[in-house]
Structure to design on (129 residues):
């Protein structure tokens, strides 16, 4: 399975359209289409952004490893980074931060995905205004 096919598989598992994924990683939908179809090689920053959105390793996307998720230590680092970003956004976040600390990695990832989705919707609304 090539990189494009892996991206398609991950995207479909989330029930996302190409356009939604393209918005999440901040690239044009036509570029996403060409990456998924294998007509265009993926750039390093795009690979990294897609791996982050799906919480998989870049090695998995490139077909170097079959393991999708980063090792536990990398997952913990990723959770901490997400929590820091959320904490930075909210000035009164001590209670929120404690609540988030009790969530599982998947629950935090769902929150992260939702925030990215809402952010992309907001960007779209601002462009059409």
């Amino acid at each position: 399975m090539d990189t494009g096919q892996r991206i398609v598989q991950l995207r479909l598992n989330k029930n996302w359209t190409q356009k939604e994924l393209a918005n999440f990683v901040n690239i044009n939908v036509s570029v996403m289409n060409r990456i998924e179809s294998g007509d265009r090689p993926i750039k390093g920053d795009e690979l990294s952004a897609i791996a982050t959105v799906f919480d998989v390793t870049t090695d998995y996307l490139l077909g170097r490893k079959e393991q999708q998720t980063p090792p536990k230590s990398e997952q913990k680092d990723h959770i901490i980074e997400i929590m820091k970003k959320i904490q930075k956004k909210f000035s009164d976040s001590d209670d929120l931060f404690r609540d988030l600390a009790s969530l599982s990695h998947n629950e935090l990832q769902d929150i992260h995905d939702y925030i990215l989705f809402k952010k992309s919707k907001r960007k779209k609304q601002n462009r059409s205004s």
Notes: The chain has two domains: 3-61, 72-128.
